[in-house]
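New here. Your pick:
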Amino acid sequence: METKYGYMGKILWVDLTEGTFTDEIISDDVYEQFLSGYGLASKVIYENQPKGIDFKDERSIISVMSGILTNTEATFNGRWMLAGKSPLTGCWGDANCGGDFGPAIKKTGYDGIFIKGESKKPIYIYIDDETQQILSAEDLWKKKDAVVTEELLIKKHGDKSKVICIGSAGENCSLISGVVNNTGRLAARSGLGALFGVKQLKAICLNGVQDVYVHDKEKVISSTRQLNIDLNKSLDPFCNTMKWSGTAGTTADSVDSGDTPIKNWQGVAEDDFPHDKSSKISGYNVTKYQKEEYYCAGCTFGCGGLCSLKGNSLLQNTHRPEYEILAGFGAQLLCEDVEVIFEINEKLNRAGFDAISVATTVNWAFEAYEKGLFKEEFPYLELNWGDSKAVMNLVDDIIADKNLGHYLMNGVKQAAEYFDKDGVTEAMHVHGQELPMHDSRRDGSLGLGVGYEVEPTPGRHTATNAQWQQMADAPSQDSVLNNDKLNIKFQRRYINTDMSHEEQGQDLMAASCSEDIINGAGLCNFSFMGPFVPVVSWLNNVTGWNKTFDDYLEIGKRIKTVRHSFNIREGIDPTQVKVPNRAKGDNTLKDGPNAYSANVLKWDDAKADYYISMGWNVKTAKPLPETLKNLKLDFVYKDMYPIELIS
């Protein structure tokens, strides 16, 4: 068999209804068109899942993917991805996670696992080099949380086994549930844990040893060595903060600068949660509990941390909360008790909830309480901003599916539709997906906000890289191969308001589509912390290809267009996917760094510029016929233009 470089050349289909495992060989040209990760998943799911079906239909597909660079000498390569139709939004859904599971996928000899069908009883999938099994999980289902489940399966199948699993959130098919790896790293967004839950799939346990072949290992090692040197020498403030405290170290600065929304996007940090409070949930006040650094697979940087809090038996070995959790359950709710946030983080991880979605939903609940919405149903309820005990109790109720928590466990959209029929609050979601803790009204964040609306997975700050730091200098490596100097296109932090429409559209397109390259490669976004990242030479030297940056950008555009077209095929009108008015800067704040945001005035023009650059119809957002033809997307064309024939 011909040697494959970078990818394994096949995927595994698991049919839970039939109890079967089937290999599918993927041709080399498909990898060259879609990479791996959710790029490959987008083509496979689009072509194999019937259109219009509900996520509860047994024909729905959930995929678990590695990337082209996974298990190679490139660093930051350990991400794994889920993909399928989102139970939360009805759109294309995907979720990205670190931890140690990405390499385990490739070690079984596959680039991804595609699961369809539905089991009649709780099960888990076990794969090693000799066996592929569907085994009973009845002793785990609704009995063991995600952390305990992982520990038990590793004990049963050996220390080298790697596990992903759901907790109670996924078992209960919560629309804001994720899938857990490595005792607390979550593929959280899009509610894809519910796809595991509806199939009664508790876990996947992998224990393979197959190797990945690299075309030119020495060149990959050389590029990686240089990146590590540059990271260690970097004077970039964000890079240095990430070295010692991860995203936890960014919390106070994000709050102070206006990046963090306050009080369900109504408040102003300098008035409601000033620096003396935000500093209590940031930097050293978080890392002081750390006992060791945490490294995801394939990473030499180690921006995570394993912590221990004395006197709390639940928190003797817990992951350090990330910025989104510290901001969502801290600054946004005006809570300064970092130990409460640690406990909330651990409880949500064990239950397998998307902490971003829960935090945004809880923020809405506090506003709703302030405006008197719960008095009839819950007369004794008290939700006062800054009351950390009230936050903890409400999170406990969401996890337990009781009291008000019963109405919040499926996210803010459903909760607001039930309680707030008169619209006195604002539910901060886009097409059902709760917004993260990054304010699109902030000066320079227009690209982020537009991404909340136009991306196939709406309401996601990691769906576009428009916030990344623009490289001011040329790459530090003397010899730059394969147009990697154009990698600076990845690094544009802000959309310049003085740009022409064409320039703005190109910048938005590059920021958007480069994220599809990153996810197809299996890279971590935090690799882009300032120093030059040799993405193109990594990809070329791993695979043996000879592509330029623009070639890869076209691949990104192809992947994006398939994911976007999936939504249209499912009956979603992209032009009607809207962020809440507060997130645009309509109903503007009167004080603080985001007061009187001008972004709302530029919003529609920026979207039009993006659509034009993508080759999509400005009025309908539908990919133009010539775009689909140029991208060789015949299987999409027949759905978008069924009456016409492709010449």
Q: What stands out?
A: The chain is about 40% helix and 10% strand. The first strand starts at residue 10 and ends at 15.
